[in-house]
Amino acid sequence: MTARFAGRVAVVTGGAGPIGFGIAQRLAEEGATLVLGDVDEGRLSAAAGKLGAKYVAGDLSRRADAEALIGAADRLDVLVNCAGGGVILPTPEHTEETLHATIDRNLWTTLHCTLAALPVMTAAGYGRIVNIGAESVRNGLYRHAVYNAAKGGVHGLTTGLAREYAAHGITVNTVAPAWIATPEADARVAAAPEAERRDLTGFFDQIRATIPMGRPGTVAEVAAAVAFVASAEAAYITGQTISVNGGSSML
């Protein structure tokens, strides 16, 4: 594998989760120095240890925690906003708590980390911001309306910032996965009570039916897309949504 991130520093949020860790691992394999952020300090410490990375634990929906994460990087070339994890429910079943949790975890984390990163990147005249969005924003999946409100904000932030910062050598793009298989999700389904397991299985069957390839994507497939748009060779790509979706929506 090439070392296209040699000498580059990348901050990856949500680094303790399966997708964030997979992205961080791919960037490290290509030579990046990493700083990881996540709210789960135990899992984050373990993830950082595996990759030889710095880490800062904190709630990135809070500005001070986001600034502490960005401030831990000696320099900043790449920011991957992967922190997320919405509460997926039929819309009427959401509570005030789940509404706020979904917006906080996805939109506010992205906003605060990006706002902290932009002055650093602007001063350097170089930066790659990659936001992890969601295919469901485009194709309207079942039970995803509130999640889409949060991720749709991330998609909108991407295009606005891409135009605003293009002259500063900073690109801003979204990588939007569809259904991605992870061992953690499989384990959660396996451990669920029978009625919940049947419900989740039917729900995933509905999602599978929207994907022409007939399968979930992999973390490695998401990480590959992120690594490309985060690289110097993607200099002329900005304001785009790169869908990793098995064909579930097409242009």
Please write the CATH class name of the largest domain. Alpha Beta
CATH architecture of the largest domain: 3-Layer(aba) Sandwich
Helical/strand content category: alpha/beta
Domains counted in the coordinates: how many?
A: 2
Features:
single chain; 251 residues; alpha/beta; Rossmann fold; 2 domains; seven-stranded parallel β-sheet; 9 helices; 7 strands; 49% helix; globular
Secondary-structure blueprint of this entry?
Layout lengths: L8 E5 L4 H12 L3 E6 L2 H11 L2 E4 L5 H9 L6 E4 L14 H29 L2 E6 L3 H4 L5 H21 L4 E8 L5 H9 L2 H16 L9 H11 L11 E4 L7
Parallel strand pairs: 1-2, 1-4, 2-3, 4-5, 5-6, 6-7
Helix pairs in contact: 1-9, 3-4, 4-6
Pfam families: adh_short_C2
Protein name: SDR family oxidoreductase
GO molecular function, one term: oxidoreductase activity
Could you please describe the fold and organization of this structure?
One of its GO terms (molecular function) is oxidoreductase activity. Keywords: Oxidoreductase. With 251 residues, the chain is α/β, with parallel strands linked by helices. The chain folds into 2 domains: 9-180 and 222-237, Rossmann fold (3-Layer(aba) Sandwich); 182-216, no CATH class. It is 49% helix and 15% strand. It is built from 9 helices and 7 strands. The chain has helices spanning 18-29, 41-51, 63-71, 96-124, 136-139, 145-165, 183-191, 194-209, 219-229; strands at 9-13, 33-38, 54-57, 78-81, 127-132, 170-177, 241-244. Strands 3-2-1-4-5-6-7 form a 7-stranded parallel β-sheet, with helices on both faces. Helix 1 links the parallel strand 1 (9-13) and strand 2. Helix 1 (18-29) packs across helix 9 (219-229) and helix 3 runs parallel beside helix 4 (96-124). The model has no long low-confidence stretch (mean pLDDT 95).
